[in-house]
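Example 3.2
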Amino acid sequence: MPITHKKVTVETCMGAGGSAQIVDEALQAIRGRWKLAIVFHLMGAPRLRFNELQRALEGVSQKVLTQAVRELERDGIVERTVYDETPPHTDYRLTEVGMALQLALRALRDWNVARSPERWTVGRK
């Protein structure tokens, strides 16, 4: 449903702190080869250990995965818990902010399917 109660102006969209800047910052937080995959895997599991996440993301190196989850943690999307046990382990889960991404990602998915349904309906029921 379109937003009709506010007048959209160049200033509200393109000015400092405008919609374009806010959306760009949000996209920047999930931009990167592995970040969306990490988020989707964590949406499907309440918690994943680092090694489980690495196995789920075939082809990602330990260094790259560490960098991606640290960036997601910095942006408040993922929470990292380190257990001081023997052997030590670390697990990851989505924060409330990360869980809230589900609605935005679903809306983005639906928008993309609507703009090219023939591409996304082949072989799906």
